[in-house]
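Appendix B. Chain record.
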Amino acid sequence: MSRVSVENLNVWFGDGADRVDAVKNATFEVPSGASFGLVGESGSGKSTILRAIMGLVTTWSGRMTVGAFELGKKRPKDFYKDVQMVFQDPYASLHPRHSVDQVLGETLSLHGFRDIDQRIMKLLDDVGLGPAFRFRYPHQLSGGQRQRVAIARALAPEPSVILLDEPTSALDVSVQAEVLNLLADLREEHKLTYIMVSHNLAVVAHMCDATAVMQNGEIVEVMSVADMRAMKPTHPYTQHLLDSSFGYRPNAAQSA
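Structure tokens predicted for this chain:
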């Protein structure tokens, strides 16, 4: 059963001669409990798709469904309880004057939870932060710790779908693997469905079951991670990305 379905999605900005078509006829499905990647170079439309799903972009056409929600121009409140997003820059996505306690407490209160103290402690434990972090502010946290808080905030409403927009690209390399492993563990523990945007195919190969490859706003190929690891693309652009990410192929270099 599909948890997320996107069909013939077009997203544009501007009008007339100034119009820019950021996403063109994108179609893919994500089964419940799966992790699906969107990969491609900067400007290929990956993050725009996530923003369209979340309702952060209003100029779109096509059909999008998330579970029982048929998405229109506006999202009902219950949608944001079921679907959450983790952004690329954890410092920019957290209010600099709000403590971790306020960030998590306000989210829980907004979604109608009552046992807020207990839930805050559970969320901190879930993302590998202890009670000592509860009353700290973003500037008192490392990049990895800030992203863990952002992940805890996304978990707070108990969603079934989490959209991940380059969740580790702003972090030090030494911290990236820790956060990716945390996300993998949380997916299994909470039975989550992920859609992850990344320009790093190694990250997608580690985290996802399948991926859509994007070029200039279009999905040129949807492939399983097994085919990706076996270097078996069907589109030349996917081959280019694979060669760039995992190294050149000696046979291809010799025959060129």
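Further analysis of this model is presented in Appendix C.
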